[in-house]
Design a protein that fits this description.
This protein has about 180 residues and is mainly alpha-helical. The chain has 9 helices and no strands. It has one domain: Leucine-rich Repeat Variant, CATH 1.25.10.
């Protein structure tokens, strides 16, 4: 299904949170080829929307789009009052890869968190550490540094934690705002 980019961006200003959430989902369908137009609108929603579900979905979609432009907005979302938004931002930063290097220090403060993802065996600290590892590995790869066997094993463990977080976020994606 194809959507008009400008019409979808306009939907983000709807008074109805469900319409805004649907617009965020449509931006995901539009994909990365439209991210130059849609990412700034998603960052604005991430920073200012009244609904934690719309903000969390915007963060997740910014990760799916893997748009380096969104790193600063995602770093700011690490301070959001909603744990779902914070977790979505943590996950999204890992999707962006090496361009998210400025997020390493802000992410480090989550590595001591005891907050658990409901219905999982994973906690926020594990997802944050996995994201840090993923970003560091992307930076190393950009610099031509090849991971050793131990680093590859760690990477597999990190990916498993991030998959569990992604599944948790997918379940949240259908909740009310």
């Amino acid at each position: 299904m194809s959507y008009d980019v400008n019409a979808v961006i306009e939907e983000l200003t709807s008074q109805n949170w469900a319409n805004r959430l649907e617009a965020v989902r449509r931006i995901e369908v539009l994909g990365a080829e439209h991210s130059q137009a849609t990412a700034p609108a998603l960052v604005a929603i991430l920073q200012a929307d009244d609904s934690q579900h719309v903000r969390a979905s915007a963060a997740r979609v910014l990760g799916v789009l893997a748009c380096p432009f969104s790193v600063e907005g995602l770093i700011q979302a690490l301070d959001d009052k909603s744990p779902h938004v914070r977790l979505s931002a943590i996950w999204a930063l890992g999707q962006i890869g090496g361009a998210a290097e400025p997020a390493l220090l802000p992410l480090a403060r989550f590595t001591g968190s005891q907050e658990r993802l409901p219905g999982t065996s994973t906690n926020v600290a594990e997802v944050a550490q996995a994201t840090i590892t993923l970003i560091e590995q992307a930076v190393d790869a950009e610099r031509g540094i090849v991971p050793t066997g131990e680093a590859r094993k760690l990477s597999e463990e990190c990916l498993a934690k991030r998959r569990e977080a992604a599944e948790f976020l997918a379940r949240l994606n259908g909740e009310d705002g």
